[in-house]
Amino acid sequence: MPIHLDDLDVVCEVEGLGSALVVACNMCAGASLAMKENKPFLQFFRSLLKSPPLERHIRRLRSELRERGVKTKRFKSGVIQQFFLCLWTSRERSRLRRCAKEYEAVIVLGCDSAIETVVDTVKGTGCKVVKGMEVAGIMNTKPKFHLPCDISFEESKIIPMCDQHCKQIREKSQQKEEDASDRDA
């Protein structure tokens, strides 16, 4: 299943800049927002291969940034590439690099791998890369098909990833050690 992402408030990080390009991974970002909003992930006859929850999120983000004087544009990738930003071809990355040169920031709506793809791609352009979402875990869900060809999720859960789980265990362990030290002192 896709990586589950939580959206971040990026307006503060971009405020004061003149322009920002929004780059999104339709698969993980779209699936995460669909699960969060309990809305269909895809509606083939209404929006073909776009995720309506992701499209709404991008429209809201662009609107908020416009209100603060930031010019925005959404980078539109190829039909197949739009689903997995982390698997973009050299050609698609070159397109992004050319487009990003016209902006002060690139907002990435995707996982850490998507962010790394963008960081590597825009290196040397002077573009600030802004993390628009953060990894919360892996989605465990059942896809459900509805007429007229909508895909949504049911019985969804977020499974923590080992690194996050391990970090929480380390933090609890450190807290216990600190508590023990405080008692001994």
Describe this structure in words.
- The chain is of the alpha/beta class.
- It contains seven helices and eight strands, in the order βαβαβααβαβαβββα.
- The chain has a four-stranded antiparallel sheet. Strands 4-2-5-6 form a four-stranded parallel sheet, sandwiched between helices.
- A hairpin with a 3-residue loop joins strand 7 and strand 8.
- The chain is globular and about 60 Å long.
- The protein starts with a strand and ends with a helix.
Q: How are the SSEs placed, and which strands pair?
A:
Blueprint: E1 3-7, H1 11-14, E2 19-24, H2 26-37, E3 42-43, H3 44-47, H4 52-67, E4 71-74, H5 90-100, E5 105-109, H6 112-122, E6 128-131, E7 133-146, E8 150-159, H7 162-184
Parallel strand pairs: 2-4, 2-5, 5-6
Antiparallel strand pairs: 1-7, 3-8, 7-8
| Mean pLDDT rating | 81
Total number of helices: 7
Question: How far apart, in Å, are the first and last alpha carbons?
Answer: 49 Å
CATH class: Alpha Beta
- The radius of gyration over CA amounts to 19 Å
Low-confidence stretches: none
| Largest sheet composition | 4 strands, antiparallel
Estimated structural class:
alpha/beta
CATH architecture: 3-Layer(aba) Sandwich
Number of domains: 1
Helicity, in percent?
Answer: 40-55%
Please state how the strands of the largest beta sheet are arranged side by side.
Answer: 1-7-8-3
- The helix/strand series, from N terminus to C terminus, equals EHEHEHHEHEHEEEH
- CATH topology term: Rossmann fold
How many beta-strand elements?
A: 8
Approximately how much beta-strand content do the residues carry?
25-35%
Dominant shape:
globular
